[in-house]
Design goal:
The complex is a heterotetramer, with 2 copies of chain A (324 residues) and 2 copies of chain B (349 residues). Chain A has 324 residues and is of the alpha/beta class. Chain A has 12 helices and 14 strands. Chain A folds into 2 domains: 181 residues, Thiamin diphosphate (ThDP)-binding fold, Pyr/PP domains (Rossmann fold); 127 residues, Rossmann fold. In chain A, strand 13, helix 10 and strand 14 form a beta-alpha-beta unit. In chain B, 43% of the residues lie in helices and 9% in strands. Chain B is built from 11 helices and 7 strands. In chain B, strands 1-2-3-7-6 form a 5-stranded parallel beta sheet, sandwiched between helices. Classes of the chains: A alpha/beta (324), B alpha/beta (349). One magnesium ion binds next to strand 4 of chain B.
């Protein structure tokens, strides 16, 4: 089977979907000849033309708002926001518009729109490029929030997103874009929303993560294995919908849990995971659920990101403390 | 930008040299819609005062803008993207009055825009509809449809970033769209004078590479003229137009507002003299096509029509608790499904 | 001592502070002659003139961005966003700019800016007017988030906000604006940030809330008292900073806790409160901490808000369940 | 809007009828700054290629715009609000080169803008600086200061909603501000042609009620002219000006970018012929004020100057873990204080 990086998996998903569904179009900054700043759309304008792969003006609110309108006209837009941090400029068009439009029209209209955006630290980016603000969108219901962590899921979840009649925010872990290849079949397949993946099974503790933090948890699990601690690693894959069942059953099995995310700790989605575990399986917990996140300050200069982001050390420390 | 386009002057006479496109029968039709709008507003305000209607923003004073622009469209192919003060434009475009009324009454299913009616829902978030309207027009072009979008915005809303982004994108994509800016001189209590230092909002179009025109927004014949020209332009593939329709908000921002706190009564009095309905009636009277009797008859007929719609809306089923969850997701998350069950259980239990 | 509603307390605070500090100015939609859509700024333009009480164009991002610039010039701007839901239009100027500006300038500049915004359900408002999106701002650190629930705090916290060299988002519970009067002294006083208030003391359960939900919790406590259940009601007052100490000690005392907020449940600030309790006082909990929020759908039509918002019934039910 | 203002043409001759304000000595000073900018960019790009410098956006090709605009300001009272490509404008305005360099190197304390230097930090969030700049100018007026703000934006960034809101508010408040739009034909890989359908970005000013001018942005004498006029206008209390400075990005978006993927080499070649530095050198050569020897000497001097700044920046203390928490709050929340302690403990332990 073909081996692909996340960038290649996304490119492949887009190309195949555009091939099979003429309504699918891409729009965003530099998605055309440049192929996107990370080359996820490389070669697509050459193949599908400038009417279906559109370099837009530098204006995020209009990229998102126009996508909504394009969907109403019967197109299936896949918009790229150059970095998730710049969704802030179009924030009012996401939750308050995409997320509410169906309700507002009493069900007459739906918004089959996918917004793709890379994010995350670890690549020494300038300000805003690393901001992990996924939790904010959970508070504006109506939007699904998808956080792939590997090439196979990236393709399968992206196809699911594009086909979903509901609007989807698809956040791509830029640190992992080219960090490794995995099997990604040619041709269409989907990974369903709301199904967390047990990417490693263990007995002593469950590490819960999504996006690039899954990779960190896998490294932590390796490290812990050396100390005789065996860890389950659970990849939530989607925050909305949240797979409460798998989350609870996996944490109940080990009785202990550490949640890891790149976003600042306070009110990060880790809080929701912890609160959910509290509500659902309090009596199965052998120790308090711990969270490891970035600190509650803005993402600092790139020179400081290794101190700021959750590190292998901090994850391992949190596990040790939880096991005490 | 040319001068402010004018055809039918406030005194009911035709401006020197004007060549109106609207013929008399059509003007009678326009008058009908303008009167229907005024009568509906009057009735709804009364109902609101009796506690039977929610917050409502009347179109009073702006009937020529609202009706003249809508009449330039073909409801079978064109689209209307409203803000919230263009109720009668959407009704003219095929949205049943009882349905939009039901929306104001907080009904759910009975307020659904019917399939085939090419109208987007009322938009409360000022200017957010404009990028959406651009996308819609762009998409219609991509889909090969022979359609034009008429998008409404207030002069207040034209200060929002969305206005700029939407118009610029429409210019670049040469989308078939008309931006119809109703300058009614007020954004709630904020005077047009402190909203922008520009002398005409129509100037803005040049910054996006398409024409901008200013029109007397209380002159239905002039509004219709410029709207038809803009729609034709869009339909021919020549791209967008910005129309600034200069009018006046003759009532108030909405039923919770009291303009006496901020409006100069003289300004208000001056504006009343430019009433968009009276000038049509004067003109048609001069032509022998209008008189008190016809006015009384039509008023009665329209009042009945409106009343039927209002009664239908009132009679339509009230929302039920499960409507809280209606129309959000096609595939709702499991947690939302559970929450719905909880709410219904809680209410049963 | 004078009795004031929240509207009057805010108006009084603004008037006194403008009187004593000529740098303080107000800007926003309709804050001038109209006195704001809720009349919180009534009479101030007459008193301080149109240069210090400014009706701005309808453009939220510029109201907030300009406030940042005004602060750099040495003014002390208090901006009003007509409803909290419309901060979405200026979202990129809040966390990413006000919250980061000091860090960006390596400490050279600070943003002494207060953003006031009414919000909350229960007054049959149109769309967006009720949205309780406070938790979103917690994920963009650098901003303090203040949620008064009564007239006394409204004045004291507002004065603290205006004087704080850090930027503050000050959210006003519109449902309570005129719901009752309380003692609000003339003259300056401040209520410090990060100090939660125990507004009622009980033994069986602790209800945690902020803003208008405090009033709901007090009603629930009354109701519960009839059943012999005595409840502590804790008003967090500020979400950032969070008074972890009082929160934990009060919940530890009763061993049980229900958190109530108007925001949608998932990733609401209640999740942070619950996760914090999990981390800090897990072993003092006699039952899982419960949350009562709005449902995870957009705020519905006003006709449905009573079903959507946390109700007395739902709070009381959650308490009963927690006490089982 | 008048035509594109031009004084010193690409061939080094003065345009017919032009009346430049810049005198020869001053022009030599401008040349010095332009060469300093070019040399700094060249050196930093080389360092970046060796892995010794982070992502950097050079000003190459835009030196006349950057320097000519800055020279119109008085650093003791006026303010600069940059985007990110105007490094040498801020240095001209008093920000030491070693400090802005230290910022690029991720230093913290050594990158602090010194008190008294009236420059805001580099802004990565495109156009977000513009409402801030308007507020700053407005506030300076309210404070009674005799100051003008020069705010920079790219043609790409001028599509953002913030551009519109900022300019409109500046017009309404008659703030002392100059919006200096560098149209370098590119926003990363996106050509100016698909960014807006307008033929000139300067047209946009009319929509905000103040003048817009277009200038040959590779002509330092012309840029200086229009900038001085705009600054004077602002200082006199007459309000804002929008300047579109038409130039060309001669290198690349930033050091991670490779324009060969999207740029037409012919367009690039054409642009090189309009080099802003060469034309000044030609002109001064004609006047006997410039020759190879002077060029070599000045190049060596400026290279040494730049090198000193670079070495100072490299030598400045590296950030420490506690810098993660530096400069966020004046009064940090208790939890943040604890997190800082945790981080430091964790690293000690
Ligand atoms: C983004 C946003 N900000 C603020 C408001 C509150 N608001 C509702 S209507 C209005 C004034 C609109 O004025 P204008 O655009 O001129 O339209 P008009 O009411 O005059 O038709 C304001 C400020 C809103 N609904 N949306
Ligand atoms: C709000 C926002 N969106 C996107 C980006 C990514 N980005 C950085 S520079 C740039 C292009 C800017 O073009 P222009 O404004 O013309 O300035 P130039 O680089 O040409 O000087 C883009 C899209 C950003 N930094 N901020
Ligand atoms: Mg208006
Ligand atoms: Mg550019």
């Amino acid at each position: 089977m073909p081996q692909r990086t996340i960038v290649e998996a996304i490119n492949n998903a887009l190309a195949e979907e555009m091939e099979s569904d003429p309504r699918v179009m891409l729009l965003g900054l530099d998605v055309g000849k440049l192929g996107g700043v990370f080359r996820t759309t490389s070669g697509l304008v050459e193949r599908f033309g400038a009417e279906r792969v559109v370099d837009t003006p530098l204006a995020e609110a209009s990229i998102i708002g126009a996508s909504l309108g394009l969907a109403l006209a019967g197109m299936v837009p896949v918009a790229e926001i150059q970095f998730l941090g710049f969704t802030a400029q179009g924030f009012h068009q996401i939750g308050p518009q995409l997320g509410k439009f169906r309700q507002r029209s009493r069900g007459r209209y739906n918004c089959q729109v996918t917004i793709r955006a890379p994010f995350g630290g670890g690549i020494r980016s300038p300000e805003f490029h690393s901001d992990a603000i996924e939790a904010q969108f959970v508070q504006t219901p109506g939007i699904k929030i998808v956080m792939p962590s590997n090439p196979y899921d990236a393709k399968g979840l992206l196809l699911e997103a594009i086909r979903d009649p509901d609007p989807v925010l698809f956040c791509e872990p830029d640190r992992l874009y080219r960090s490794g290849r995995a099997e990604v079949p040619d041709g269409p397949y989907t990974v369903p929303f709301g199904k967390a993946a047990v990417v490693r099974e263990g007995q002593h503790i469950t590490l819960v993560a999504w996006s690039a933090a899954v990779e960190l948890c896998l490294r932590a699990a390796d490290k812990l294995a050396e100390e005789g601690v065996s860890a389950t690693v659970l990849d939530l894959r989607t925050l909305v919908p949240l797979d409460i069942e798998t989350l609870c059953s996996q944490v109940a099995k080990t009785g202990r849990c550490v949640i890891v995310h790149e976003a600042p700790l306070s009110a990060g989605f880790g809080a929701e995971v912890s609160a959910t575990l509290m509500e659902q399986i309090f009596y199965d917990l052998d120790a308090p659920v711990a969270r490891v996140g970035a600190f509650d300050v803005p993402f600092p200069a790139a020179s400081l990101e290794d101190y700021y982001l959750p590190s292998l050390q901090r994850v391992v420390d949190a596990v040790r403390k939880t096991l005490q | 930008m040319q001068e402010r386009h004018s055809v039918l002057q406030a005194d009911g006479t035709i401006a020197a040299g004007a060549q109106p496109r609207m013929e008399e029968e059509f003007l009678l039709e326009a008058l009908r819609w303008m009167m229907k709008s005024r009568l509906y507003d009057t009735r709804v305000i009364a109902l609101q005062r009796q506690g039977q209607f929610g917050v409502f923003s009347p179109g009073m004073g702006q009937e020529a803008s609202i009706v003249g622009s809508a009449m330039a469209l073909d409801p079978t192919r064109d689209w209307i993207v409203p803000q919230y003060r263009e109720l009668m434009a959407t009704v003219h475009h095929g949205l049943p009055l009882e349905i939009i009324t039901a929306q104001y009454l907080g009904k759910i299913a009975p307020a659904r825009i019917p399939d085939g009616v090419r109208v987007l829902p009322t938009q409360v978030s000022i200017a957010a509809q404009l990028p959406q309207a651009t996308g819609l027009a762009w998409g219609l072009r991509l889909r090969g449809e022979d359609a034009v979008v008429m998008a409404y915005i207030g002069e207040g809303g034209s200060s929002e970033g969305d206005f700029h982004e939407a118009l610029n994108l429409a210019g670049v994509t040469k989308s078939p769209i008309v931006f119809f800016l109703q300058n009614n001189q007020w954004a709630i209590s904020t005077s047009r004078r402190v909203q922008s230092a520009t002398t005409s909002f129509a100037f803005r179009a040049a910054g996006y590479g398409f024409p901008g025109v200013q029109v007397d927004g209380n002159d239905v014949m002039a509004v219709y003229d410029v709207a038809v020209a803009a729609v034709e332009r869009a339909r021919k593939g020549e791209g967008p137009t910005l129309i600034e329709s200069v009018t006046y908000r003759m009532s108030f921002h909405n039923t919770t507002d009291n303009p006496s706190r901020y409006e100069d009564p003289k300004e208000h009095e001056e504006a009343r003299k430019r009433d968009p309905i009276e000038r049509v009636q004067k003109y048609l009277t001069g032509l022998g096509l209008w008189d008190k009797k016809r006015e009384t008859e039509l008023t009665e007929e329209l009042t009945r029509e409106n009343e039927v719609a209002l009664q239908m809306a009132f009679a339509a089923p009230a929302p039920t608790p499960e409507d809280v969850f209606a129309n959000v997701y096609e595939h709702p998350p499991e947690r939302v499904v559970q929450q719905k069950a909880e709410l219904l259980d809680g209410r049963r239990g």
